[in-house]
Design goal:
The protein is an alpha+beta fold. The chain has two domains: 67 residues, Orthogonal Bundle (Arc Repressor Mutant, subunit A), CATH 1.10.10; 152 residues, START domain (Alpha-D-Glucose-1,6-Bisphosphate, Chain A, domain 4), CATH 3.30.530.20. 35% of the residues lie in helices and 26% in strands. Strands 3, 4, 5, 6, 7, 8, 9 and 10 form an eight-stranded antiparallel β-sheet that branches. Strands 1-2 form a two-stranded antiparallel ribbon. The longest helix has 18 residues. The protein starts with a helix and ends in an 8-residue tail after the last helix.
């Protein structure tokens, strides 16, 4: 947490975060144009943000793209701000993330975030692939039905019986990666589908979870906050046994 506040204390770093909030996935060259300093100076600021897990990167060819990591900011808000602003309200739902295997056929993600969870690889995999476990930490009271396998389908059903989200897994590497479609019915009956991926990387007694969202249609940029809320709830559920359920 100290690293987060240190990173946010510098106005140049706040400018970089504001720029990524407005347009995710920018290169070093694009970000350098925002500040009156050298590429090396901007790179040093980006390194501080990366060490605080406020920025994550994706390498594609000879370019490195930078993304605002909303999970870290959301966790800071949950710990220091939200309890004073709306203590009785159950906060919610930050979920899972992961990411697909980098390959030449994948474009750079439109949205990307990471979180670190103190749990086993088996526990995190179960939370991301077992419908019963997924229902336990999901917000909006949605239950999950179906199978997380290629050829299968997962449906998030609201308490009123309406479908909130449908996903069709396209690649599943047990305990490591899930790639799937993202068909959000909550944006309306004609909402365009996109693609997402979860990547699990065990690191000692913790796991790094990355989420990448591809082909994000215009008007669905709010999906990023949903991912952050779901990831927070997932982390709380795995580490404490209590989910952070709330309305969207």
């Amino acid at each position: 947490m100290d690293a987060v506040f240190k990173a946010l204390a510098d106005p140049a770093r706040r400018t970089l975060l504001d720029a990524l909030r407005q347009k995710d996935g920018q290169t070093l060259q694009e970000l350098t144009e925002l500040l009156d300093m050298t590429r090396f100076g901007v790179m040093k600021h980006l390194n501080v943000l990366a060490e605080a897990h406020l920025v994550v990167t994706h390498k594609k060819g000879r370019f490195k793209y930078h993304y605002l990591n909303a999970v870290t900011l959301q966790q800071t808000i949950d710990r220091w701000i939200e309890p004073m602003r709306s203590k009785p309200v159950a906060r919610a739902v930050l979920d899972l993330k992961s990411s697909l295997e980098r390959n030449d056929q994948m474009t750079k993600p439109d949205f990307m975030m990471q979180t670190f969870i103190r749990c086993t690889q088996d526990a995190l995999w179960d939370a991301l692939s077992n419908p019963e476990s997924m229902s336990a930490y999901h917000f909006l009271g949605a239950r999950v039905e179906g199978e997380a396998r290629v050829g299968g389908k997962l449906n998030w059903i609201m308490p009123d019986g309406n479908s909130m989200l449908t996903q069709q897994p396209t690649k599943v590497v047990p305990k490591t990666r899930i790639e799937a479609t993202f068909e959000p019915h909550f944006f309306g009956p004609d909402a365009a589908a996109s693609r997402m991926a979860f990547l699990i990387e065990p690191q000692g007694d913790i796991c790094k979870l990355t989420i990448e969202h591809y082909d994000l249609p215009e008007g669905q940029e709010g999906s990023g906050e949903g991912w952050a809320r779901l990831a927070a709830s997932l982390k709380s559920w795995l580490e404490t046994g209590t989910a952070l359920k709330s309305s969207m």
